[in-house]
């Protein structure tokens, strides 16, 4: 910001005229008042769409990519591997202009997803050529798949992670953090299944019986829960690294929160409410409803503390969808009030209330309940909202 004295010296030295000085001062005062108005009426600063031109270019990219794909399908009919490889190269080339030079947000996201989709197809086709996997016709054939399923899975998920990492290194597209998190989670599931299989084959782990299936499925919920906690921890670390939400790392944290929320919510819901994993029972009793309400309160508090609505939205959507499922499919007495009706009312009220005054509620709840040493490391409690 140029001081008033500097402007006066510029007028005295003939650098600018007095009219130009007055114009600059008027522009500066207008900017100051605009910032004050923004502070009084904060809006969530989403960095997912860069504006009308970004949306316009995105439409062009979709049309151009579709045309390129249909052209390749005609010229290279039946050569799916080459089509997918050229589609990935095409998306990279367009990203060199749209993402690397102009930093268009929505367009960059679409291009990155197109690149990852084409790369996944390439990896899958290469795996089918090297590790042919046919549909098993017996239990023994399923057991025999271990020798091909393990290296094929490692190649697929490892290749996706490597491709996403290289693309992110080049273009810094935040959604790829979510792609890496999902692929790493699936890779962890594969590795756990291989360890269990090897244990059964070696005789160190007892093979499960039919009656053990519900307990086995319930125990398997710990895997997504652990993965969700790891992804959530990385997202929080990125949030603490960029408390003001000014860099692309906070956008990466946004997508990591979106990925971690379902992995945390579903296992906690099943484990806390005692639902039937094997048969998908979705109706909690009164005690389970209390536990479910406590879960919602816990997720709401954590979302407020770290200033992340992206963690809260999937959570409420999950609980709300379960409530709708129960209300539609239950055969409860029509004169009684289903337990999930209360949950739906709470979720709807929470969404409206938090949407109308997120930062105000955050100050009222978080500030009195956390020590200053913790608050100083969390996203700042102020009027302007940076959360997503």
TrEMBL record:
Lineage: superkingdom: Bacteria
Residue stretches spanning the membrane: 55-75, 81-98, 110-127, 147-168, 175-197, 217-240, 252-272, 287-304, 311-328, 340-358
Key words, A-Z: Membrane, Transmembrane, Transmembrane helix
Protein name as annotated: DUF2157 domain-containing protein
Organism: Aquibium oceanicum
Lineage, opening ranks: Bacteria, Pseudomonadati, Pseudomonadota, Alphaproteobacteria, Hyphomicrobiales
